[in-house]
Amino acid sequence: MKHVGFRIKTYLEYRRRAVNQYGLHSPFLFEFYKACFRPSYKHSFPSILSLRKKLRNNRNEILITDFGAGSLVSKSNSRKISEMYTSAAISKKQGEFLNRLVTYLKPYSILELGTHLGLSSAYMALNSTARVTSLEGCPNTAEIASQNHSILNQENISVQVGSFHELLPNVLSTIENVDMAYVDGNHSYDGTIWNYEQILPKTSEDSVLIFDDINWSPDMKKAWDDIISKPEISFSINCYKFGLIFFRKGVEKQDFYFKF
Ligand SMILES: C[S@@+](CC[C@H](N)C(=O)[O-])C[C@H]1O[C@@H](n2cnc3c(N)ncnc32)[C@H](O)[C@@H]1O
Question: For the domain bounded by 4-45+90-257, which CATH number is listed?
Answer without folding.
Answer: 3.40.50.150
